[in-house]
Amino acid sequence: MKELNIIDILKQINLFSSLSEKELSELAIVAHISHYHKDSIVFTQGEMSENLMILIDGVVSVYKHDSKGNEVVIGYFNRYSLLAEAAILRKIPIPSSARFQTDGSILKISLDGFERFLLSHSRLSYEMIQSLLEKIDLLQQNIHFNLAATSKEKILNFYQKNPKLALDLKQYEIASILSITAETLSRNLSKLVNEKKLVQTATGYKVP
Questions:
Q1: Which of 4, 58, 109, 126 is placed for a possible disulfide with 52 were both Cys, Cβ 3.0 to 4.6 Å?
Q2: CA dihedral (166, 143, 128, 91) positive or negative
Q3: 53, 161, 35: which is closest to 107 by C-alpha?
C-alpha cells in the first residue's frame, strides 16, 4: 500500500468521507497506524481494546475456538473494514480473536478521543449507527443464505460478492469461511467453470 498520511487514509474510509478537512484533522490527532507482519495476532478473545480499529492494508481472519480447541474462522476482512467495533464501542471483552493472513496495517483511533469527537459531530454518530445496522443486516442475510443454499450456490455467491478477497485468499481459507471441505470447494469450482459461471485465472477464480 502506498504510504499515506492519516488524513488521506480517513478520506478513503466511507464512514469519514463526509468530514471536512478541519474535522479530519481533529480526528487524526487521536489516531495512529500500527504495522503487522503475516501471522501477527491483532487481538485475542476476551481482550479489551482502548482503540477503534480499522484495517487499512492486508487481510485479517477473525476466528473462535470450539469446545475441542479447533479454530473456527468466522470471516476474513480486507481494506477499510472495522474490526470488532461493536464490542469496542460497548467497552466489553472482544468475543473473538484475529490474525493477519498477510503483512498489513491498522489505523487505531483512541476510543476516548473518538467518543469525544462523536459528541460534537452528531452526523458521524448517525453514520456509525448505520454502519453497525448494515453489518447486522448482512450477518442475518448470510445466516439465512448459508442455511438455505447448496455448496455450489455458496461458492458462487462468495466469488460474486468478494472478487478481491477471493484472489487474496487460499482455497482452504475460502472453504473455511463457507464451512465446507477443501475437496467440496475444488469439485464445485470445476463445475462452475464448466458452466461458465466462473473463469480460472493465474491467481484464482473470478466471475466473468
A1: 109
A2: negative
A3: 53
- Per this entry, what is the length of the chain? 208
pLDDT at res. 43: 97
Please report which confidence band the pLDDT of residue 198 belongs to, taking 50, 70 and 90 as the band edges. very high
| Phi–psi pair at 202, nearest 5 degrees | -65, -20
Type of residue at 25:
S
* Most confident of the following: 60-64, 120-124, 183-187: 183-187
Q: Nearest 5°: phi and psi at 141?
A: -65, -45
The three-class DSSP label of residue 55 is strand
pTM of the complete model: 0.74
Q: Which residue has the cell 485475542?
A: 44
Long-range contacts: 174-181, Cβ < 8 Å, 24+? 176/73, 177/73, 177/75, 177/76, 178/146, 178/151, 178/154, 179/146, 180/151, 180/154, 180/155
Based on its alpha-carbon atoms, the radius of gyration of the chain, rounded to whole angstroms, reads: 19
